[in-house]
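Response to reviewer comment R2.3. The reviewers asked that we include at least one raw input/output pair. We reproduce the pair for Putative pterin-4-alpha-carbinolamine dehydratase here without editing.
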Amino acid sequence: MAERLDDDEIARQLPDGWERDDDEIVRVYEFDDYLSGVQFATQVAEVADEEFHHPEIRIRYDEVEVRLTSHEAGGITDQDLRLASLFDDEY
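Raw output as returned:
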């Protein structure tokens, strides 16, 4: 099981565009239309499934919100930060 990171580690490693929201990291990706966002959400889901670490994904008309946390660790871990970077690579 991944170890929960402390506040300083999270602040140092948080990728650009991501924000901390308590025990989660969050990013909202913007798109020109709904289907572009749905396609991105599908790519995120495929990456997450390969990594066996599944985010919360909310699809709105022109944006997709992604939230990551490690429930078993009780907060944010290296795995969450790694996935955030992988998702950014898909964008």
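The chain has three helices and four strands. The CA atoms of residues 26 and 52 lie 18 Å apart. Further pairs are available on request from the corresponding author.
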